[in-house]
Structure formats: structure tokens, C-alpha cells
Specification:
six-stranded parallel beta sheet; nine-stranded mixed beta sheet; 2 domains; 34% helix; 343 residues; single chain; Dihydrodipicolinate Reductase, domain 2
């Protein structure tokens, strides 16, 4: 890449505060424009980001400003409209999760992206965390053998101490426990066990704590996944817990097991009465400033330079995870199993 990729930010909020420095840390890209529907204080903006970044209240004007890509950091219910508009303008896309709040909008994004032939990066950035890079390496080395059972669970109380609480409590903004945050765990489960899911069955509930009363949807769900190869998986999404952040992983295979940052493998003839440790940093925070965006975005920029699709978190991969997520939410709503391929 002869010159830096020019990236525009759509939505100037909490998530953008993590995307901007992660993009600027890359030798291949820089943020050159920011769009916000809210008025931006010119003095504050220049002091924080310098004179070289343009501030826009008109999205069409920003898309016409010479940028090459956009990072969509707007509210989830705006993602589809913003992604479609940017793709039609020929911009490569970084899209925060979830892609959208319903499957129809996800399909609409996919259709426009394919027609425009732009590249995509969806922010399932946990795949690029130390925890899951190490976990996937253990799996790929065959140290667990054939995995027949896996569980990846997301425990993170999203209460009023988080800025997103004010809008996240709304059904038409947060969506569900899976869509708002638990999607990271379900996506990680598919990373570990494969995406060939036959059916899902889910149950949901919510805390009786007054802290989480403003939520308009169930804030805890548990989903059982039936894979076509006969394996079984489980994903809990708990955003109304009162405890430290915890991204739980437990995988059981024909040659061994993995539990968070520990594993046992018959192939290595390790002591079956003791776990062996893995050198990794566990996911331990819901704060966007701690997310591995920089690693993920660099992989995206490297792929763009090579004219290739994004590894691990392209739109194609994200669509597979969203298909399962929406099937799970439908199952929780109806109380019945849902055939994933019927979505």
C-alpha cells in the first residue's frame, strides 16, 4: 500500500473512542474524517484530534471527502442503513457488532456489499484476543482431538455504570442478551467448534435486581447448539450479573480438554490429574479500550493491501454467527427448537 488508507468514522461515541486510536496505530491507515449526528465543538475536536481530521454532520459529504473506508460505530439500529450507504459509495467497511438487529437487515447489507465488491471487517474482535488465538492454536494442533462438547459463556453486568446503559436497555436498540454482547461468546464457540449448526434451543430470563429493571428484554439467555457432526455446544449470555467480567471457555474432545487458560492432552501424555497452563491474557473487561481492535484492524488493512478478504471476521463469517444468533433468539421467544438453515 503506497499511501495510508483514509478511514472515516460513522458515529462519534464510546466505541469510536477505541476505534480511532486502533486505526491510527496502524502504519497502513489513518482516521481522516468523523461523522456525527450531534453537533461537534470545533475547538474541542481540534484539540483532541488535530486539524487534519475533518468533522462532518452530513454523512454524504463525508463519504464524498476522499476516504477509502469507514468504521461504523453508530447505534446498532443504524448499522444497516450506514453500511448500505457506505458500500454503495464504494467504501470498505468496518462494522461494529451486531451487524443489525434483525436477519432481514443483515441480508440487505450482504446483498449491497457483494454488488459493490467492497471488503469487510466485522467487530467480532474477540477472535483476535490472546485468549482465543491461543485456544484456536491448541485446537488446530489437534491437542484436543475431535471436540464433541463445548461451552463459551459471556458474563458481564451492563448496568448504569456503563454509558451505553441509557440506550442499551431499549428493545429496539440493545435487542437481546445475545445481540448486545453475548454474541461475542456465541461467535467464539463457532470459532472453536465450527459453524455447521443444525438447530438451536434457547431459554431466557432476567434478574430481579432493581439495577436491571429498565431493560425491556430478557437479559440472560442460554442456548444449546446441535451441530451436524453430532457435537453439542452451549452458550450463556448474561448481561445482568453482579460479578467481575468473565468469558468462560470449556472444550472437551477425544484427546483432551481445555478450560479457560488451562488444558490437558493425552497426545502430550500430560498428568491427567493436573491441568497444564497456557500463556495467554484472558478476556477480562467489557471496556472497549481493552478490546483487541488494533490486532484485528491491522489484519484487515493487511488483507486490503493484498487484495484479499479479511481472515476470520469478514462479513461472510459474521453472517454465519448472526444466523445462529437470530435463530437462538427466535427459540427463546417461542420456546421451541429452531432449524438454523431455515433462517
Amino acid at each position: 500500500m503506497s499511501q495510508k488508507l483514509r478511514v472515516g468514522i460513522i458515529g462519534y461515541g464510546w466505541v469510536a473512542s477505541a476505534h480511532i486510536p486502533a486505526i491510527n496505530a496502524s502504519p497502513n491507515a489513518e482516521v481522516s474524517a468523523i461523522y456525527s449526528s450531534r453537533p461537534l465543538d470545533p475547538m474541542e475536536f481540534r484539540l483532541k484530534w488535530g486539524d487534519n481530521i475533518g468533522a462532518y454532520n452530513d454523512l454524504d459529504a463525508m463519504l464524498a471527502s476522499g476516504i477509502d473506508a469507514v468504521s461504523i460505530c453508530s447505534y446498532p439500529y443504524q448499522h444497516a442503513a450506514h453500511a448500505i450507504k457506505a458500500a454503495k459509495a464504494g467504501k470498505h467497511l468496518i462494522i461494529e457488532k451486531p451487524l443489525a438487529l434483525d436477519w432481514k437487515d443483515c441480508v440487505a447489507i450482504e446483498k449491497v456489499v457483494k454488488a459493490a465488491k467492497v471488503k469487510t471487517c466485522v467487530c467480532f474482535e474477540c477472535r483476535y484476543s490472546s485468549q482465543f488465538l491461543a485456544t484456536k492454536a491448541v485446537i488446530d494442533q489437534g491437542l484436543l482431538g475431535k471436540i464433541h462438547y463445548g461451552e463459551v459463556d459471556y458474563y458481564h453486568g451492563i448496568g448504569p455504570w456503563y454509558g451505553q446503559f441509557r440506550w442499551n436497555v431499549k428493545k429496539n436498540a440493545g435487542g437481546s442478551a445475545l445481540l448486545t454482547a453475548g454474541c461475542h461468546a456465541l461467535d467464539a464457540l463457532l470459532l472453536c467448534m465450527g459453524d455447521d449448526v443444525a438447530s438451536v434451543q434457547s431459554l431466557s430470563t432476567k434478574s430481579r435486581s432493581a439495577i436491571f429493571k429498565p431493560y425491556e428484554y430478557d437479559t440472560t439467555s442460554v442456548t444449546i447448539l446441535n451441530f451436524k457432526n453430532g457435537a453439542v455446544g452451549k452458550c450463556a449470555a448474561v448481561v445482568d450479573c453482579l460479578q467481575p467480567y468473565y468469558f468462560h471457555t470449556h472444550l472437551c474432545g477425544s484427546e483432551g480438554s481445555l478450560l479457560d487458560d488451562k488444558f490437558h492432552s493425552m497426545k502430550l501424555k500430560t498428568d491427567k490429574n493436573k491441568w497444564s497452563g497456557l500463556s495467554m491474557k484472558m478476556l477480562d473487561s467489557g471496556d472497549v479500550s481493552d478490546h483487541p481492535y488494533q490486532t484485528q484492524f491491522q489484519a484487515f488493512f493487511d488483507a486490503l493491501a493484498a487484495g484479499k478478504d479479511m481472515p476470520m471476521t469478514s462479513l461472510d463469517e459474521a453472517m454465519k454467527s448472526h444466523r445462529v444468533i437470530f435463530a437462538a433468539d427466535e427459540s427463546a421467544r417461542t420456546g421451541k427448537p429452531v432449524n438454523v438453515n431455515a433462517k
